[in-house]
Amino acid sequence: MGSVSNSSFDAYAAYGLSSSPPATPLPVYQHQHGITHGIRPLPPTPQARRKPVPMSSRLISFTTCELSDALIKLGSKSGGFIPGITLRSEGKICASAYTVQMALASHDSPPLSEHFVDTVPAGAAIVIDVPPQAQNAAWGGLMSAGAIARSAVGVVISGRFRDLAEQRELKFPVYARGHSTLGQSPFTRPVAINVPLVISPPDNSDFPPVTVRPGDYIVADEDGVVCVPQEMEVIVADTAEQGRAIDQLCMEDIKAGKGIKATFMKYRGKK
């Protein structure tokens, strides 16, 4: 299970970036619903619940591959890529993250006062971190229906989901690591929302975990899921745009028969 924290931290270090550009300090997140690990929340007001989450029109124009390439060029070790999570129900996602931490049912935190789907802001992408040993679904058809009613744009799950036929009928974008016939109870439950998540690879490999904070950009398509730190939106989009232009030149030369090695050397400066 990913770690839970409500303290500020260096996003550049969390993403394995070699250096931090001069920028304003990262904000300390005051969780919208007063929820932190192990603390019972106060109910949010309807106005707070319905506040729209802004979406980046620039990031949505890029593929996840282009965004990962940009993050790698900027020094990220992971390229923002969250391994093992794939498209399960049609639709691209590009939106600010609304995070949910799941834990095993035996976890000692008190229950949340509301269902997390009922607190999702309009326009948000729900990101759920699930204990790796859990074999049950953390998401189902009823949750997708509720998320649609609240104008959420999709869900990303580092675990399993279910009700595949319903998901396809609802056409709500679902990205997950697997599928199950089992519901949440009595296996797992949500313990915190709107907190930073540290999502590790599913195979305990040396690939770096990815930190997803509330408000970070989640972009998901047929190639996978990428997290872009919100304060890096502009530089990532600029870098992705430059990379796309170079790739287009490469494609033209390669189609003309000029060879991969020569083309890469010409436009990318490498073999």
From TrEMBL:
The cofactor(s) it depends on are:
Mg(2+)
Q: Magnesium among the record's keywords?
A: yes
Q: Where is the signal peptide?
A: none
Residues annotated to bind substrate: 140-143, 162
Keyword Disulfide bond in record: no
Which of UniProt's keywords are assigned here?
A: Magnesium, Metal-binding
Originating species: Mycena indigotica
The name this protein carries in UniProt is RraA-like protein
SUPFAM superfamilies cross-referenced by the UniProt entry:
RraA-like
Region Disordered, as annotated, extends over 26-53
Q: Where does Mg(2+) bind?
A: 163
Annotated GO molecular function terms are: 4-hydroxy-4-methyl-2-oxoglutarate aldolase activity; metal ion binding; oxaloacetate decarboxylase activity
